[in-house]
UniProtKB/TrEMBL annotation:
Name of the protein this chain belongs to: Short-chain dehydrogenase
Stored InterPro entries: KR_dom, NAD(P)-bd_dom_sf, Peroxisomal_Beta-Oxidation, Sc_DH/Rdtase_CS, SDR_fam
Coiled coil residues, start to end: none
MF GO annotations: oxidoreductase activity
Keywords: Oxidoreductase
Ranges of residues in domain Ketoreductase: 7-202
Stated family: Belongs to the short-chain dehydrogenases/reductases (SDR) family.
PANTHER family reported for this sequence: DEHYDROGENASES, SHORT CHAIN, SCP2 DOMAIN-CONTAINING PROTEIN
PROSITE patterns: ADH_SHORT
């Protein structure tokens, strides 16, 4: 018996395979969403997503392909509707789709900002929003869901902000915050929401200046049988657990890389200065580090 037996999951960016393959192996029916564009989000090729579906079906699992652009309100709505029409329900959303258009602030174009925010932040929200509407309706009708959302944040938006990734980092930080709000709002409908901040060998990380070269070098140096700390397969078990009924966790963000999982805490006070009356600039200058 799998950890996700009987579940129906939507996984965006699933041409990347590992999440979708594990979910299916654990018993879930999967809607494999991937537009199949370049790292920058250009072009369309449903081939990688279809290959993932074919591999799942060949192994005896259930899956269908979806090539919608999740940065589109209607594209995300149709994605959610497809899960319900094909498999009769929706129990889990894994928001994983993303693109990169790196650049330093002084030279970043408006389109590069807008595109990254649209795919990452708006794309996460669009799928979440339409799924939440379904779960709310189910709850109001008396069929209390046991559903889960797993969003994809990043070290770039949490613990390791990268120069040259202002758009990506801002989107990922916002996704982490959105996850906490979703957990607070949707718990009443039987929905849990968590986020991961993964580090693994993917098209996007390999294209990240500095990080990509390091990850590629680590892979080249691997000895046969040695643990591959940057394999994306290391990330998927946490995602599957967070989506399963065995998990009661909600409102958390987890960093995950290789054999390590860390719970992250958000902004918090580290030092407070106070005054008895109105602030004076010179007083602030003298006391604020």
């Amino acid at each position: 018996m799998g950890a996700l037996d009987g579940k129906v999951a939507v996984i965006t960016g699933a041409g990347g395979r590992e999440h979708a393959l594990l979910f299916a192996a654990e018993g879930a029916a999967v809607v494999v969403n991937d537009r199949g564009g370049s790292n920058a989000g250009e072009g369309d090729d449903v081939g990688p997503a279809q290959q993932t579906v074919d591999d799942i079906v060949a192994a005896g699992g259930r899956a269908v392909v979806n090539g919608n652009d999740i940065s589109s309100w209607n594209g995300a709505k149709e994605l959610v509707e497809q899960a319900i029409s094909e498999f009769g329900a929706l129990d889990a959303v894994v928001n994983n789709a993303g693109i990169l258009r790196d650049g330093f602030i002084a030279g970043l174009s408006e389109s590069d900002w807008d595109s990254v925010i649209a795919v990452h932040l708006k794309g996460h929200f669009n799928v979440l929003r339409h799924a939440a509407e379904y779960w709310k309706a189910q709850s109001k009708a008396g069929a209390q869901p046991t559903a889960a959302v797993v969003n994809t944040a990043s070290a770039s938006g949490t613990t390791l902000p990268n120069a040259g990734q202002v758009n990506y980092g801002a989107a990922k930080a916002a996704i982490a915050a959105m996850t906490l709000v979703a957990a607070d709002e949707l718990g009443r409908y039987g929905v849990r929401a968590n986020a991961i901040a993964p580090i693994a060998r993917t098209r996007l990380t390999l294209a990240t200046p500095g990080m990509g070269a390091m990850i590629a070098a680590e892979h080249e140096a691997l000895e046969e049988g040695e643990f591959d700390a940057f394999s994306p397969a290391n990330i998927s078990p946490l995602v599957a657990y967070l989506a399963s009924d065995a998990c009661t966790i909600t409102g958390k963000v987890f960093a995950v890389q290789g054999g390590a999982i860390s719970e992250l805490a958000g902004w918090h006070d580290v030092k407070t200065i106070e005054t008895e009356g109105p602030w004076v600039i010179d007083d602030i200058a003298a006391r604020l580090p």
